[in-house]
Amino acid sequence: MKDDIKNNVKVNNNPLKEIASKSILVVEDEFVSRQLICKILRSNFEVEAVETAEECFNRVSEKEYSLIFMDINLGHGISGLEAVKLLRSNNQHAKIPIVATTAFTMPGDKEEFLDAGCSDYLSKPFTKEKLLNILKGFNLL
Asked: Of 41, 77, 81, 120, whose CA is between 20 and 30 Å from 3?
């Protein structure tokens, strides 16, 4: 299955590929977390949300995003951490800021996610202020 997914994370040479400024992709399998993140972001950004890594790969092949919020524990299928590694292995997606959103808060977790290719880390539960500060750090607000 992973080989099939790796084959689907391709450079899309489609000249019609949509490029949207200030657009954010939220990859989150938990409904409440997904809805909260989207609600906070919708006033300033075009926001799309998906539940799986596979859906994420489909979206990034069709559109360029300003930032991706990636849940690390997606429950089933490819984990968020594996998804980050696959995205980073593709030159087209290597520069997209990816923020790990996770309840993993043990010592060393943040470093592991950053070493795997995440650009920043947002631990759950989080406040609106913390989420917005992440966006400010990427000059998106």
From this structure: 120
CATH of the domain at 69: 3.40.50.2300
Q: With contact defined as beta carbons under 8 Å apart, do 69 and 26 qualify?
A: yes
What is the rounded (10 degree) CA torsion for 86, 103, 27, 129?
-120
Express as a percent the part of the chain with pLDDT over 70: 85
Q: Which residue has the higher pLDDT, 108 or 46?
A: 46
The answer to whether residue 4 sits within a structural domain is no
Of 53, 27, 140, 58, give the one whose Cα is nearest residue 131: 140
| DSSP states of 23-70 | EEEEE-SSHHHHHHHHHHHTTTSEEEEESSHHHHHHHHHHEE-SEEEE
